Amino acid sequence: MDTSTVSNPWASDQRSQGPYGLLIQQAELSGHLKKRRDRDIAMATDHAREQSPSLQLFQVLRQITAQRKELDKVNVEVQCRLQDQETNDITDLSTLENRIKQLNELSQHLQAVMQHKSHLKSRLQKPFVGEYLHIAAQYQRCVSEVFPMLAPILSDLQTNLDNIHWASTFSMDNGHMDRTLDDLTASLARLQTGLQSLVQLRGSVSQMHHTSRSQQPTGRPVS
Hints:
Helix content: over 70%
Number of helices: 9
Strand content: under 5%
Largest sheet: none
Oligomer: single chain
Shape: flat
Structural class: mainly alpha
Number of strands: 0
């Protein structure tokens, strides 16, 4: 038997692949194309993943684990924000500066009280002179809020009393109201006449302007 013409299927003879086979093999070796074995393995893996419930369960568990990690990150961030909010009064610089300012004002007020302590004692020990309203302690705040509301009313009290006095003494029997109404009617009539005159004057001016524009020549003058 002549074996010279029989090709060995296990031999890696590149000449039997042809130019296209050599090109594909070089592309696979250089990494420009995926190897057919890797492609077959990937296809088999995808097929098994689609058909196997166990692999699908692993995929779902992997997704759940990733979502839990994201949820843990969010929870940690929320806790950090809550902690920052709770400790904002002792960590925020603007809040600390405001507290320091308030403490300085309180300290200055207390120092002023201590400096005028003797004067305050003498004022408190003196009896009341004049007429005062005796108000219980629980109502002092209400009274202090009422007085600012009464101040503008008391300032306009005299004007309101004068208006009331005028209304009580005014009488329509003497014909004063009739004369006032007649004067008002005459004033309105004069105002209406003047308005009509202005409207007529405006119409006349507009008509004159339109006539002057229509009489102007439209062509250019011949030189």
